[in-house]
Specification:
With 284 residues, the chain is an alpha/beta fold. 30% of the residues lie in helices and 14% in strands. It contains nine helices and nine strands. The termini are close together. 40% of the residues are buried.
């Protein structure tokens, strides 16, 4: 299968294809972040990097086109600038390449958004999105929309994974951060239980280690806070955030910790994508 991945990031799509048992003949990646490219090439050295998506042209024999166009202009957490935001306007590059390459299958991922924006995307792509929460296959609350022409995709089965399942054992390097009550007041809206409700107290949150974490994003405020002994807490480690995204342990190792967190927040939950691609396998 020949694949064109737009906004490829650290190539979570490539991990998902591998996990779904789909053989890749050529994998073209459009990405401009040098750190994400570095991690992709470390793990998948045969990746053909194409650079800026606006300059990608003249590709033939593409079987699968996929991408998650930048979402800042759509997100409920953002400024809701919709298609006027130059980052979200990159969606139209996906549309352009869908028309030019005419792949057998396509997949577009994005955040929850106002229905009016969602309907515009659906009209351009000719399909309605499937909404999937990553907590079905990982220890993370992460609701995303997936537009695809892959047939008969259903919801993944709930694996029942919770935050405590992905934590590293305590050692002396996992030092607690003090003043947890102040931390909780500034970040309480990021701490969500499995039903999407905020926790009422830090003690309540500590009990919620048996629920999925908050959603990873490309900013430090989204990194889960892990309760420790007493009322202390610590930030989730990069390897724990890799597990939240179903990424292999230490996949992102080789760049700074801040860059690891950033690319993981921008990435896909791998097992959701692998689940969707599994329906390609069935069709084949």
């Amino acid at each position: 299968m020949n694949v064109l991945s737009l906004f490829d990031g650290m190539s979570c799509g490539q991990i998902a294809l591998e996990r779904a048992g789909i053989k890749i003949d050529k994998y073209y990646a459009s990405e401009i972040d040098k750190y994400a490219i570095q991690i992709t090439q470390k793990n998948y050295p045969n990746t053909i990097q194409l650079g800026d998506v606006t300059k990608v042209k003249n590709l033939n024999n593409i079987d699968l086109l996929m991408g998650g166009s930048p979402c800042q202009g759509f997100s409920f957490a953002g400024k809701q600038l919709n298609f006027d935001d130059p980052r979200s306007a990159l969606f139209f590059e996906f549309v352009r390449l869908l028309k030019e390459t005419k792949p057998k299958y396509f997949l577009l991922e994005n955040v929850r958004m106002k229905k009016e924006y969602q309907d515009v995307i659906s009209e351009y792509l000719g399909v309605k999105p499937i909404m999937i929460n990553s907590f079905l296959v990982s220890a993370q609350n992460r609701i995303r929309l997936y537009w695809t022409n892959i047939p008969n995709v259903k919801q993944p089965k709930d694996k029942g994974i919770v935050l405590s399942d992905i934590l590293e054992d305590y050692d002396e390097d996992l030092k607690p951060i003090l003043n947890p009550e102040k931390m909780f007041e500034t970040q309480k809206y990021w701490q969500m239980d499995r039903n999407g409700k905020g926790y009422k107290s830090l003690q309540d949150r500590i009990r919620k280690l048996h629920y999925p974490s908050n959603t990873l994003a490309a900013h430090s405020a989204s990194i889960p806070n892990i309760p420790m002994e007493g009322l202390n807490y610590r930030k989730a480690l990069p390897v724990e955030c890799e597990r939240l995204q179903n990424v292999p342990d230490n996949y992102t190792k080789g760049v700074s910790k801040s860059q690891r967190y950033r690319m993981l927040g921008n990435g896909w939950t791998v097992d959701v994508i692998a689940h969707i691609f599994g329906y390609i396998n069935e069709k084949i």
